[in-house]
Structures are given as C-alpha cells and as structure tokens.
Amino acid sequence: MSAELLHALNMAFAMFWEILWALILGFALSGVVQAVVSKKQITKLLPDDSPRSITIACALGAASSSCSYAAAALARSIFRKGADFTASIAFMLASTNLVVELGIIMAILLGWQFTLAEFAGGPLIVAILVVLFRLFVSRQMVEAARKQSDKGLHGKMEGHAEMDMSIAEGSLMQRVFSAKGWTAISHYFVMDWAAVWKDIAGGLLIAGALAAWVPMPFWNKFFLTQHPLWAKLWGPLVGPLVAIVSFVCSIGNVPLAAVLWNGGSSFGGVIAFIYADLIVIPLLDIYRKYYGLKMSAVLLATMYAAMAGSALIIELVFQGLHLVPAERHARIVEASIRWNYTTVLNIIFLTIAAILVWRFFRTGGRQMLRMMDEMPKNNGRRHAAHAH
Question: Which 8-state DSSP code applies to residue 157?
C-alpha cells in the first residue's frame, strides 16, 4: 500500500474515531423519539403551509432524524397520505439539517460556532423556501406532483420510510422503557445506521483523501481567499455546487466540510455546503421519480436559492456578531488512539450500541433490514417482532 493512500486512510480513521460516540448518541436519541412519535401523527399535524404547520414540520423533522434518502422517501410518504407539499418538504429539510447528531459532530470537527449557525440557518432556509413556493409553485403543479407520487415509483429507503414501530400505549417513560419500546428503539437505531453508513464512510474517505492529497494553495485559489469580500459572496454560491457533485449527503458531508474550512472556504460557504445534502445528484433523480421532472427542477432551484441565501445571511450576521472563528483549525488529525475523553466516551457508547444491536437481532431485526429498501405493498404500520 502506497504511503499516500495510507496517509489518506489514517486521516479518515482519525475523523471517524473523533465522531464515533457522537454518532451513536445521536442515533440512539433519534431512535427514542421515533419510538414514541408515529408517522400517522406527523401526517395529521401538517395539513397546510401555515406558520403553525411549518413550525411543527420543522420540530418533527428535527426529532425524526433520517439519512437524506430516507428523509426524501418519508416526505413523499406523508405527502401521499395527505400532508401539505410545502410542509412535507420543510419536514424533509429539518430531518437532515436540524438533528442532534449533526450538531454534535459539527461542534467536534468544526467548532460550536458552526453548530449554532446550522441551527440558526435551518429555520431560515425553510422560511425562504415557503416564500419561494408561494411565488413559484402553483396548485396545479402540486396536483401534478401528487399524481406522480401516487404512481409509487421506487426511490431509495422506501421500506424504511414506511416502517412505523412507535408505541402509543402508556406514559412517555413507560413507552421508552417498556420491552416494546426498547425493541423499537433498537430497530430504529440499527436501521438508521444501515441507512447512512455508506454516506458516512464515503464522506470520511473523500475528506481523508482531500486533506492528504490536495495542496492548500489549490483551495486558497478556489475559494478566492486573496479577495475577502468576493470570498464571502462566492462561498455560499459555490458551497452547494460542491455538495451536488460530491455525491456525499447526510452526516457524511461534515468531515468534507472540515477540509473545505481548513482550505479557505468562507464561513457561509461551509454552512451552505452542509445544507446542500438534499440536492446531491442521486437525490435529484429521486425527486424526478417522486414528483416529476418539472417539480424536481423547481425543488433544485428553490432549495439552492434558499440554502445559498440563508448561508450568506448567516455569514453576515455572524460576522457582525464576531462569531466567525478567526482560526482555521478543524479537527483533521493523524490516526491515533490515546487514553483521553474521546476514547472513554467511545467505549461507553460502543457498549450501548452493542446492547441495542443485540436487542435488534434478538427481535426480528434481520427481516426488518431486508425490508428497508423494498417498495412497501401497503401503507399500514409495520411493527417490530418479538417485543418481549
């Protein structure tokens, strides 16, 4: 194995080791929320694009953490069941851009300022998108999209989007700590990992390769670091474009964002890149299948405008508040496992993960995994088996 390849793999492993405990924590918390909130309830709460419905969509999306593909499939699912189109898209945006694990990993690799910017800009994206939809998306376009969605063309993670193992009986604590609750949590935990591991691995490998092989002068020229004013405008515009062609989505784009930040991208450019996980090329093709070519083009244009615009506003506001980090020291380090707080946290959360995985396979997990990417035969609830 060449020294250059080994160097890139070491960088990728180093970033993985830094964020491992945060990934486990985030997916475990997501599993708890999904175990107590049913998808049927979500649909009923999103009847229109009123401020109340959009706010609920964002809150439920943030609680229903998903990979980008599963988020898109779930948005289509609740839209088909009667939820408003705008609210469904807001839910999709929140379920990938306003989730706990994303914020924790950004804080670890990039710094708390990026986490704050992510959660401040997420609702701003949705607000801009709502305005753009009211201006450019007609009722006829929505009806055409609904007819297309009812054809049930296969995207990705269809089975995962339809599975509903939430527990409705008892108080919140009783649902979480019951045998059925533990089973549902374990199933959501493992299936969320199964849904995103390729994106996480891909993002780490690409980030490791870029950090190891691409010289810093290239990034400095690409991000116009010699022209500070132009760099602030250029970053939010080019950030989503880099995301579109990188094919990396979900949490997997955070390590690559760390490379871009160290390479000279503006603060807003990094934020725009992270926002754009829902407009990568494979997802655009899925939108075409779900909603038709015209609506997929509208989604690309409006989401790009909302993401770039939101990132630019966040850049200007954070600059005015002196919250943009002065140094570029994102956590991209050589692979080394030392006895420190990261190792201790990884051991603790790996133990928790092992318990959940054990519960998953003891309660019909293999069958659930096989159904994750299948086209559902009906829209009924799917329950975890053997919840004892």
Answer: S
| Lookup result for tokens 């019951």 | 178
Region 100-120: mean pLDDT is: 90
Q: Which two tokens stand for residue 52?
A: 């109340």
Q: Report the candidate in 204, 307, 215 with the shortest Cα–Cα distance to residue 262.
A: 215
Nearest to 247 by CA among 259, 238, 256: 256
- Burial of residue 30 (CB within 10 Å: 0-12, 13-18, 19+) is buried
| Domain-wise residue ranges, the chain | 3-371
Model confidence at 63, pLDDT cuts 50, 70, 90, reads confident
State the DSSP H helix or E strand holding residue 214, giving kind and residue range, or none if neither: none
Phi and psi dihedrals of 160, rounded to 5?
-60, -40
The answer to whether residues 376 and 159 touch, using CB atoms and an 8 Å cutoff, is: yes
Strands (E), 96-197: none
Both structure tokens of 33:
């929320």
Contact 64, 191 (CB under 8 A): no
What is the per-residue pLDDT across 66-89, written as a single tens digit (0 to 9) for each?
667 778 878 888 898 889 999 999
Give the span between the Cα atoms of 221 and 215, in whole angstroms: 11
> How many residues can be counted in the chain?
388
CA distance 130 to 184: 34
